[in-house]
Amino acid sequence: MKKVLISLALLALPAMASAQVYCEGRSYDATNSLSISWDACWFASSTASSFKTYNCAAAPANNVTAILHFQFKVPRQMLAAAAITGVVDVVVSPGNPLPPFYQYEGTGCAGSGTVKGFALTVYPPSGTSGCDLNAANGFDPYCDDGSGAASDCALSGSSYTPDSPAPGIGRFLIAAVRANARQLDPGLNYWAWQLGFNNRLRTACAGCNIPASIIWQSLGIESNAGEGEFCLTGPDSPKGPDRAGSNGGGLDGPTPVQNTTWGQIKALYR
Q: In the predicted model, is pLDDT for residue 102 greater than 90?
């Protein structure tokens, strides 16, 4: 665990200073491993959705947080998973700058000050936010401490870069580091984190009505037991897609190549 804690010790927001570089220069270990959904997790009889529309009207004042849940599967057992790092793109209009409503960086219109347009959570209490986080539903939170009631992630955070890797694309780098490494098993869906997108800045930051696609590009999982790393990508079909739409945005958008994705991590976290 020492290597992970050293590489992510400066993970405090608003800026993440360093992180382990995963999977660069190698192929993905699994290509049907990721799923994201609005309001609820993907499992049998769930009401999860790939699409969400914000209320962008100025009145009445209806501030609502739209919750996007992130889950993953592993292709084989990992005995000591210690840290996960995700790359998530918000794609609005490639070639054109992101509108203010999607400027979630610390100095951006929707990211600065005490009122922000998004929030990261690595462990919601069981039964809230539309997810019943237990193995009976076929999945388990990555940050679970084993009791089902508290988080064992000692460090977590996100960094957002607007108009990167190209204009019209905003990139989240999201990390969660466990205080105690845990075993991951194939066949289970592991809940990674949730992103909450709030419409409270719909009038202060122009562009709330603009459609967007949210694409979970990849997830790196590091072990502290010398068993290597996982690099995961692609939709966990039929459990759920690896992308979602907001305000009419489609389930599409440019997908950067692998070297660009992990090269971006190296550049921002070094």
A: yes
Identity at 92, one-letter amino acid code? V
Look at 108 and 267; give whichever has higher pLDDT.
108
Task: Give the start-to-end residue ranges of the domains of the chain.
Answer: 2-12+28-258
Beta carbons within 8 Å of 197's beta carbon, 6+ residues apart: 54, 65, 66, 68, 117, 118, 246
Question: Are 111 and 117 in contact, with CB atoms under 8 Å apart?
Answer: yes
Query: What is the C-alpha end-to-end distance of the chain, expressed in Å?
Result: 19
pLDDT (tens digit per residue) in 6-25: 344 334 333 332 333 445 55
What single string gives the DSSP state of each residue in 124-143? Answer: PPTT-TT---SGGGTEEETT
C-alpha 154/C-alpha 163 separation (Å) is: 30
Which tens digit of pLDDT belongs to each residue from 172-225?
999 999 999 999 998 788 889 999 999 999 999 999 999 999 999 889 999 998
- Give which of 139, 35, 91, 41 is closest to 256, Cα–Cα: 91
d(CA 261, CA 127): 34
Contacts of residue 230, defined as CB under 8 A and 6 or more positions apart, other chains included, come to: 29, 30, 74, 75, 78, 219, 220, 221
Q: Are 72 and 190 in contact (CB under 8 A)?
A: yes
Residues whose CB falls within 8 Å of the CB of residue 147, separated by 6 or more in sequence, listed in order? none
Q: Which of 219, 106, 90 is nearest to 164 (CA)?
A: 90
Characterize the bridge pairing of strands 78-91 and 169-184.
antiparallel
pLDDT higher than threshold 90 for residue 260:
no
